[in-house]
């Protein structure tokens, strides 16, 4: 390297270096985000393991509903008794979890209010039906009357994001399992801030099918983090080799660079 080529070589690294730094920051950020997701997933798995098995308990009493928090109660196995308000059955669009080797099925989760003996209401996700069974008339045995007992998991309202379509209660078109929104559409009061997701106990007539939550959650976030960090390390190596060749070109490259100068 000569004194005349060094500044030119270093200046030629400014834009590639800036692009590399930006890409490196993104890759490290993605790896760190996966580590954060790993911590969150481990906490969720611990919650499920400690709450979702064993004998079912009672739901949180109505007097405590204003203080209810998912972090302390979600995925707890409970049993609740009341009367289903089948006239307010609400089909929420969704996908049934794929079976091993299969694919997800489109359909609806049936959210039905359950009126308790004291008049309060708990929304129940009774389970999944395929697209062609949205109309209750196609499954006349699926709406039991009288007092029923449902065992299942306490679930928090489904979170919406920028990709969640807006609900249209007038057309009975729903896209989020949100007890408050469904209760408001049907003018129901004293409604729990959570819902109960029914277990896989068979329903009359075979539909809906409960127990759709998979409790065995995969946790591959550490692997994903290593992948992003590995790509970041590779990027550093590639840029280092590139920069070295620019600053310390081999003799043939140096002669070629000199020949191409104006």
TrEMBL record:
Pfam families: SURF1 (PF02104). The keyword Membrane applies. It comes from Microvirga puerhi. It is found in: Cell membrane; Membrane. Signal peptide: none annotated. The chain crosses the membrane at residues 12-33, 226-244. Its main location: membrane. Belongs to the SURF1 family. CDD domains: SURF1. Keywords: Cell membrane, Membrane, Transmembrane, Transmembrane helix. It is a multi-pass membrane protein. The keyword Transmembrane helix applies. This is SURF1-like protein. PROSITE patterns: SURF1.
């Amino acid at each position: 390297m000569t004194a005349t080529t060094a500044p030119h070589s270093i200046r030629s690294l400014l834009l590639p270096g800036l692009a590399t730094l930006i890409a490196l920051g993104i890759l490290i950020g993605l790896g760190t985000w996966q580590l954060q997701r790993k911590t969150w997933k481990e906490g969720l798995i611990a919650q499920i393991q400690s709450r979702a098995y064993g004998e079912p308990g009672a739901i949180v009493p109505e007097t405590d509903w204003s203080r209810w928090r998912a972090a302390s109660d979600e995925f707890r196995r409970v049993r609740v008794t009341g009367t289903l308000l089948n006239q307010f059955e609400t089909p929420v669009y969704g996908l049934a979890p794929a079976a091993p080797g299969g694919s997800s099925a489109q359909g609806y989760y049936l959210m039905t209010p359950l009126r308790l003996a004291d008049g309060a209401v708990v929304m129940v996700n009774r389970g999944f039906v395929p697209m062609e069974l949205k109309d209750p008339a196609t499954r006349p045995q699926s709406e039991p009357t009288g007092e029923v007992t449902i065992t299942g998991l306490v679930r928090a309202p489904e979170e919406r994001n920028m990709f969640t379509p807006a609900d249209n209660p007038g057309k009975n078109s729903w896209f989020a399992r949100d007890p408050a929104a469904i209760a408001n559409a049907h003018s129901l009061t004293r409604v729990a801030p959570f819902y109960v997701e029914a277990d896989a106990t068979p329903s009359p007539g075979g539909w809906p099918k409960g127990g759709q939550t998979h409790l065995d959650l995969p946790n591959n976030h550490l692997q994903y983090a290593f992948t992003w960090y590995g790509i970041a390390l590779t990027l550093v190596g590639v840029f280092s080799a590139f920069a070295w060749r620019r600053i310390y070109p081999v003799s043939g490259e140096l002669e070629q660079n000199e020949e191409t100068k104006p």
